[in-house]
UniProtKB/TrEMBL annotation:
PANTHER family: PLUG DOMAIN-CONTAINING PROTEIN, TONB-DEPENDENT RECEPTOR-LIKE BETA-BARREL DOMAIN-CONTAINING PROTEIN. NCBIfam families: TonB-Xanth-Caul. The keyword Aminoacyl-tRNA synthetase does not apply. It comes from Aurantiacibacter xanthus. This is TonB-dependent receptor. Keywords: Cell outer membrane, Membrane, Receptor. Coiled coil: none annotated. Pfam families: Plug. It is found in: Cell outer membrane. InterPro entries: Beta-barrel_TonB_sf, Plug_dom, Plug_dom_sf, TonB_rcpt_bac. GO terms for cellular component: cell outer membrane. Residues 35-138 form the TonB-dependent receptor plug domain.
Length: 922
């Protein structure tokens, strides 16, 4: 182990007082030591003390680790990408076990776990045979403290108050929130029954996550640019027509200004018991529970007919509109969305030292997440007459507007000045009420048995094990919808349910002269006014063709050998092994005839008849995953690492759905049957197989002292396979007539692709500077990746005919790997001296493609984004510290594009967040 470069005291001198290193410096020291001692190529963030990881959330903590970055939702870090590769290519475990989530993918929901109750995060960049399979980019391991190993009693209490300036703009809100955490760790002697340790932690959080956004629909069409269409929707063009020379432009079905006021609460309990009844037996039991919910009030102004009457177009060479004039109905949509997500997980591990060489470990675990989303939304639309029957200033249901995206990522809408957006009486027609409910349930039962046998000689240990997991994923969607056209009823509801626009200074931080307010309504009041109840409840029959029912069973076994020796005078150590994995998938989907329902406003929708038939699709795969890791000790402080391995990443459970989806975008409906059937897609593809890759890593690491590391890693990944959009004809009964409809879905391809990458890490404390500057330190990490992977748009990209194997070339360029960023940078500067600790953290991630959970959707890109956070703490007395944090202090927005870069689909403003807290340790 590297030591601090300080002169040791002579034997005649008094022993030096032990220096206790704490705060950020200690965390970086622990991380450096973990990286140095682990056989695989890893990066980590660890703290000796519970709650000392310097971050407000687990996601924020992870993005300070070399090569790791996050995707932001509601202004906080959520999904993790490793080495510039998306969460699909990573594997996440909690205390060495798979964890369920409510998103439908395989990521750990990091927002469920309080960072104050996590004390170690390790990212395995290279694979080894005893790791749970699933991480082409790497494996993220979260760990909680083991109370006997902690070796001391600790009671810790922490309270934080947070202030969000954006929430303070919401009328009637102070912008304040809070979180409180308490934890206890203790150990007891049971006499003849050995020793037992207990830990328990609890956190309650009440926060707010306001948001301002402009959002486009999730389906974009290619329209003929050779003619102006003065009435009706623009004419869709096919890939073949464009390839034959027809000019085109890309347009969404609708665009929406959205103001969001939200309240978020979470209660979490973590507990563990560690019992050693004898020196050779250890039993560990841990349980984690989290209950998170939020209520989100949305006020929307929707331009619902973005394909209608488009003229004077200015089209970017990439195909998207930079300027256009059109006519559209305007809608005031009000929505209350409520989510509850409950997580329960844990496991029992029994470790036995069967002899002085043989160790056996058995582990069983359970992880369950249930997420329920319920929304009640209302629509009031423009009409030639107001609610009193008087002709409106524009005298038309549709209002003229201009769309101008020539100057920035934030397009500017300008409407006919005769139309007053804040006049409630102008939103007078086509009332629609929707109650949507979606429940996602993900459950994992798993068990494993591992054996380790120590040897002497070149092979220092042998390891072998088996693992089984049983995972289910179920997803249902239910919709209750009502429309009506009685103007008198509309008038009474309109008058009774008007609300003040919810906030001041809406979108004042966005570029251009943005719309700042519009007429808004109380959605629950409208439900009560129209239906006599605030909640009509779900349908009696929750079956639907969109539903998902997936069972995945995995059997895995491995053997691995540790070795340690010398090549000449060069010490070398490492491991070599192989893992064999069999995956079996069974996916059930429903099929139904479809009725055509007239909405009463000139549009139609498709609904199931209620007569269902179950379709079951089964598929299995077997994969062999060899791996080898080698460490050469060139000098005591200089290591050379090499790794070669085969890795796999499975499709998300939701991507294995056998259901079918009719794409209905908020604020839009179909104008005719042909328009409707173009939007029938497979909800998933049960026969999708894991994405496989051969991988190589080479790293050089220098550890001159405990505070310093300089490392560089080059890596290579060769993917054997990709994903292709295909259209497969399926028979549907539509309005009583059987029709053959091409259904868009995804299959595996034989495409080959590569990723080359470079990782750099540098960290040091400037101890050579004179006091008090010797408390300064810094850490910088950078990842560069180059990939030629291709992900095609499901509608506008290359389309494969599964019968003839011919390719219809796409009209927009493909994306890369989901989550792939070419550049990822994290830089930290800190100052630790005495009772003061200061830290600044900068994170940058270049543009990346982010697919929608479940797949079979169009391309979506997230633009370059950066954040800067500040943290400070002051030890006011022994065991008591004051902490201050500021997040996203430059209020960087998140911008997404679809289906080509530059075509703004959505931008979000979240604002900054400020926290102040007090921690007490006893």
């Amino acid at each position: 182990m590297a030591q601090d470069s300080q002169t040791a005291p002579s034997s005649s001198e008094q022993p030096a007082t032990e220096i206790v290193v704490s705060a950020i410096r200690a965390t970086i020291q622990d991380s450096i030591e973990t990286k140095r001692e682990t056989t695989a190529i890893v990066d980590s963030l660890s703290a000796d003390d519970i709650g000392d990881i310097p971050a407000l959330s687990v996601g924020q903590a992870i993005q300070t680790i070399t090569g790791a970055t996050t995707h932001r939702e509601k202004g906080d870090a959520s999904e993790i990408a490793l080495r510039g590769l998306g969460p699909f290519l990573s594997n996440s475990t909690f205390n060495g076990r798979e964890a369920s989530n409510g998103s439908g993918d395989r990521s750990v929901n990091f927002n469920q776990f309080p960072s104050e109750l996590i004390n170690k995060i390790t990212i395995y960049k290279s694979q080894q045979a005893n790791l749970i399979e699933g991480g082409v980019a790497g494996t993220i391991e979260l760990g909680t403290v083991r109370p006997l190993d902690y070796k001391r009693r600790r009671i810790q209490m922490e309270g934080k108050v947070n202030y969000n300036p954006y929430q303070d703009r919401v009328y009637g809100d102070t912008g304040l929130g809070w979180r409180g955490t308490i934890s206890l760790i203790d150990q007891f002697s049971l006499g003849g029954l050995g020793d037992i340790g207990v830990s328990i932690g609890y956190q309650r959080q009440r926060t707010a996550n306001p948001e301002e956004t402009l959002a486009g629909s999730s389906t974009w069409s290619a329209c003929d640019d050779s003619v102006d269409v003065l009435t009706g929707n623009c004419r869709n063009v096919t890939n073949a027509q464009v390839n034959d020379g027809t000019p085109f432009y890309i347009v969404p079905n609708a665009m929406t200004y959205r103001q969001i006021s939200e309240n978020d609460q979470r209660d979490a309990v973590f507990g563990a018991i560690q019992w050693r009844p004898s020196p050779t037996v250890e039993i560990n039991l841990d349980v984690e529970y989290s209950d998170r919910s939020f209520a989100e009030n949305r006020s929307d102004l929707t331009f619902s007919e973005m394909r209608l009457g488009l003229k004077n177009r200015e089209v970017d060479p990439a195909g998207f509109l930079r300027y256009v004039e059109g006519m559209t109905s305007l809608e005031s949509n009000s929505t209350l969305t409520e989510r509850s997500e409950e997580y329960l997980g844990g496991g029992l591990e029994i470790a036995v030292e069967a002899s002085d060489r043989l160790r056996l470990v058995a582990d069983v675990s359970y992880s369950d997440t249930t997420r329920l989303d319920r929304s009640r939304s209302t629509r009031l639309r423009t009409d030639p007459l107001d609610i009193y029957g008087n002709r409106t200033p524009v005298g038309n249901q549709r209002v003229a507007y201009t769309y101008d995206a020539r100057d920035s990522f934030a397009p500017v809408f300008t409407i006919d000045p005769r139309f007053d957006l804040n006049d409630w009486s102008l939103f007078s027609d086509d009332a629609r009420l929707r109650r949507d409910e979606r429940e996602r349930s993900n459950t994992i039962w798993a068990g494993r048995l591992d054996a380790s046998y120590e040897l002497s000689g070149l092979i220092s240990a042998l390891h072998a094990g088996v693992r089984y997991s049983h995972q289910t994923y179920n997803d249902y969607t239910d919709r209750v919808e009502m429309t009506q056209g009685d103007r008198n009823v509309d008038r009474d509801a309109n008058l009774a349910c008007r609300t003040r626009f919810p906030q001041r200074d809406y979108l004042k931080d966005a570029p251009g002269d943005q719309i700042s307010s519009w007429a808004t309504f109380d959605p629950l009041c409208l439900f009560d006014a129209y239906l006599g109840t605030e909640d009509p409840g779900p349908n009696d029959d929750l079956r639907a063709i969109t539903n998902t029912d997936v069972l995945e069973q995995v059997w895995a076994g491995y053997v691995m050998a540790d070795y340690e020796g010398d090549i000449g005078s060069l010490p070398v150590r490492g491991n070599v092994g192989v893992r064999v994995v069999r995956t079996e998938v069974e996916s059930n989907g429903l099929r139904s005839a479809l009725d055509i329902v007239n909405n009463g406003d000139g549009t139609i929708r498709l609904v199931e008849t209620g007569d269902f038939e179950t379709v079951t699709i089964k598929h299995d795969t077997t994969r062999v995953l060899p791996s080898a890791n080698m460490i050469f000790e060139l000098k005591p402080e200089l290591l050379l690492r090499a790794a070669a391995y085969r890795a796999m990443s499975r499709p998300a459970p939701s991507a294995l759905s056998a259901g079918r989806s009719i794409q209905l975008d908020d604020g839009t409906a179909f104008t005719d049957v042909a328009d409707a059937i173009r939007n029938i897609q497979a909800a998933g593809s049960p026969r999708l197989e894991p994405l496989m890759s051969w991988n190589g890593d080479l790293a050089l690491e220098w550890y001159p002292n405990r505070d310093t590391i300089l490392s560089t890693t080059v890596y290579y990944k060769r993917f054997s396979g990709g994903f292709q959009p295909v259209r497969i004809n399926e028979d549907f009964v539509l309005g009583g007539q059987q029709v053959n409809i091409p259904v868009s879905q995804t299959r595996n391809s034989d495409d080959k692709s590569t990723v080359y990458g470079l990782e750099l890490t540098a960290a040091t404390r400037f101890s050579f500077l004179p006091a008090p500057l010797d408390g300064l330190g810094a850490k910088v990490s950078y990842n560069y990746a180059k990939s030629n992977f291709k992900s095609h748009d499901i509608l506008l990209g290359d389309i494969y005919d599964p019968v003839t194997e011919e390719v219809e070339p796409g009209i927009i360029p493909p994306a890369n790997l989901s989550g792939y960023s070419k550049h990822v940078l994290s830089a930290q500067a800190y100052y630790d001296i005495g009772p003061v600790s200061l830290q600044g953290i900068y994170n940058y991630r270049s543009q990346y493609y982010q697919d929608f959970v479940g797949g079979n959707s169009q391309l979506r890109y997230v633009g370059d984004n950066q954040t800067f956070d500040l943290r400070a703490s002051l030890d006011v007395m022994p065991g008591v510290s004051l902490r201050v944090e500021a997040l996203n202090i430059f209020n960087e927005p998140k911008v997404t594009y679809m289906p080509v870069v530059g075509s703004t689909r959505q931008y979000h403003y979240y604002g900054s967040k400020y926290f102040i807290g007090l921690r007490v340790k006893l």
